[in-house]
Automatic annotation (TrEMBL):
Pfam families: UPF0020 (PF01170)
Organism: Candidatus Magasanikbacteria bacterium GW2011_GWE2_42_7
Domain of life: Bacteria
Full protein name: Ribosomal RNA large subunit methyltransferase K/L-like methyltransferase domain-containing protein
Domain Ribosomal RNA large subunit methyltransferase K/L-like methyltransferase stretches: 172-221
Lineage: Bacteria, Candidatus Magasanikiibacteriota
A GO BP annotation: tRNA methylation
Gene3D superfamilies the UniProt entry points to: Vaccinia Virus protein VP39
GO MF, one annotated term: tRNA (guanine) methyltransferase activity
Signal peptide (UniProt feature, chain positions): none
Length: 259
């Protein structure tokens, strides 16, 4: 059995429901789950691919996998980090409350005693983890109830930001739906990729764009506003090119909800 920690977003209830919906879609059986602060701890019968799962989720900030304990939390962190490649300087970070920093400094001293070149990175947010490449290095750890989890994936904040603020057309009045929330909404509906997704009030196309990025093949959008249709068309054509969608059927048109 494998146990994972999901750091939930601001809307924790929605984030939990989204995780449950995606697990159902992927036929992953949850043996046990419990909420500890902002973390949902989930035990499953078979290992999951954290990076693949994070690519689909909208309401999860981080996914960590439980490490086998080697004594207390400090001993587990030291034991794990000491096994990482020693041919270059080790950059690591530990999250998990007020005691995490003290634990990390103690571990750093132990690592130096065995001859490791090491730097402790103080984690402020997921951007710190991203910019220090700690996920790829396997060196960001989180302590929850004295149990240590190694981070397997973090929310692709730069990709989501680009889809939100980097798209060609933005309307502050009709296009205020955040991509994260749009993605949660889609996942809660549990559509199949071959299903058709319709947004009859498409605004600037945020919901449709997230459906496209999730690989849905049939997307329809309409709105009463000519400006909205123009914005949606520009945004989705831009995203379609970036994603290199090949099996996409896309229809956008102006329509009153009554007709």
């Amino acid at each position: 059995m494998s146990t994972y920690a999901f750091q939930l977003g601001r809307q924790r209830d929605l984030s939990q429901e989204e995780i449950a919906a995606v697990f159902i879609q992927k036929h992953v059986h949850i043996s046990h789950s419990r909420l500890v602060g902002e973390y949902l701890l989930v035990s499953v019968d078979t290992p999951i691919d954290g990076a693949e799962l994070m690519h689909q989720l909208g309401g999860t900030r981080l996914i960590g996998e439980k490490l086998d304990p080697k004594g207390n939390a400090e001993e587990t962190v030291f034991s794990y980090l000491s096994t990482l490649p020693s041919d270059q300087k080790l950059h690591f970070s530990v999250s998990g409350g007020t005691h995490a920093s003290k634990l990390a400094i103690a571990v750093k001293k132990k690592l130096k005693k065995i001859g490791r070149s090491v730097r402790y990175v103080e984690t402020k947010n997921t951007a710190t983890i991203l910019h220090n490449n700690l996920v790829a290095k396997g060196s960001h750890l989180t302590i929850i109830d004295n149990v240590v989890y190694v981070t397997r994936a973090i929310q692709p904040i730069e990709e989501m930001s680009e889809r939100d603020y980097g798209r060609p057309s933005i309307d502050d009045k009709s296009g205020m739906l955040p991509p994260k929330l749009a993605r949660i909404m889609i996942n809660l509906a549990m559509p199949k990729k071959e299903d058709t997704l319709l947004d009859p009030f498409c605004g600037s196309g945020t919901l449709l764009g997230e459906a496209m990025s999730l690989g849905m093949e049939h997307i329809i959008g309409s709105d009463i506003s000519e400006r909205a249709i123009d914005d949606t068309t520009k945004n989705l054509n831009w995203l379609k090119e970036k994603l290199a969608c090949s099996n996409l059927t896309l229809k956008i048109f102006k329509k009153d909800r009554k007709h």
